[in-house]
Specification:
74 residues; alpha+beta
Length: 74
């Protein structure tokens, strides 16, 4: 995996991105989390297991992914 390639493609690697911007987005994040809990806000995600990492990465690179791509390490 080329980490620099992902970062240049503006792929978020959370919590890495929030470590540098946590204070500036804290208030907005609290509001968004509340909206997620109530269902007022929904997020499209694709969940992939660690065994499907290559497929998930290709979906990100190609733009075929719908919403956010989550790599489930369990």
């Amino acid at each position: 995996m080329d980490l620099a390639d992902f970062l240049l493609a503006d792929v978020s690697l959370l919590p890495v991105n929030l470590m540098t911007r946590g204070k500036e987005v804290a208030a907005d994040a609290k509001g968004l989390l509340a909206d997620l809990r109530t269902g007022a806000l929904t997020l499209e995600i694709e969940r992939h297991g660690i065994d499907a990492f290559a497929e998930a990465a290709e979906r990100l690179r190609s733009g075929e992914a719908i919403g956010k791509v989550v790599l489930d390490l369990d």
